[in-house]
Predict the structure.
Amino acid sequence: MKRPISAVLLFIVSLLIASCINDQDIEFKRAYTAGAIVYQTHCQNCHGSNGEGLSALMPPLTDSVYLKQNKTQLACILKYGLKGNLIIVHGKPYQNQMPAAELAPIEIAQVLTYVKNSFGNKLGVVKVDEVNKDLSGCK
Amino acid sequence: MKNLFYAVICVLSISACSNNASQKVLPILGNREADTKTVNGKTITDTVYQTIPKFKFINQYGDSVSNKTLDGNIYVADFFFTTCPSICPVMHRNMLNVYKEFKNAGNFKIVSYTIDPKHDSVAVLKKYADNLGITGKNWLFLQGQKEETYKLAKSYMVEAREGNVHDGYFILIDKQKRIRGSYLGTDPAEVAKMIADIKTLQADPEQNIVQ
């Protein structure tokens, strides 16, 4: 008699876990698709449809190491742009200006989720809370 | 005899067909005027096509470039500025394909006029060209007086005006300085068509007469 109960319990728990994962998956997909549209409107002209950049003018977005190392700076870069600071991407120097994008924190989270999981990157979802926290620390 | 006659007809019709196919000619765009003169007592009417007028600008190496510098070249022109965040990167990403395609072809050039000469000095244009990966003199980045640039844009049938407003067309110019094509530089498909058209133009016997 004990066994069936524990089996049922196990089943329910595994269902819960599965639905949990599903929720996360849905959240990711939602952010990713919304982020793709933000990317097309605000980023693609310079950074290219495959994040390939443009020669030595515009840096590519394919450097996962750069994205990891500058994790907390990315939201600030999107919001305030770059004013000709030297950055190193894939070992190459880039020193062009990047215009500030008029983006809401939620859009920043979406587009970062898109970029961080496209073009060969696989860095997971970026949440709005993280973006808000990063934005409050912009230099 | 009858067979021979049919054979001749056959050969003639086939050659007529293939002739038509190989003689693809690009249209001549822009305004045209009829020029009527009297030569040796006969009245002759010629068509005068719109051509690119004289200009004198400075390129990314600090050299002066005029319409004369481009004599004997088929070239593609566009209008841009280096700090343009919207269509210019897309245009020049596509133009880079054109540059690579004809890098080793003689008598072909690309000419990009800046519409923001105040910011785009010779040094800025040189840096832009370097960063884009352009070497040599096949792709010229030209800087001149703002008003002169706007005026010149009109003769290329391109819009360029105050406030760094410009459109994204690539204009194909032949050795006689006539406009032979206009392509949306932001569309990779149109730029691919332009590359094909440049090859057609290069093969046009009219372009191979010594100028």
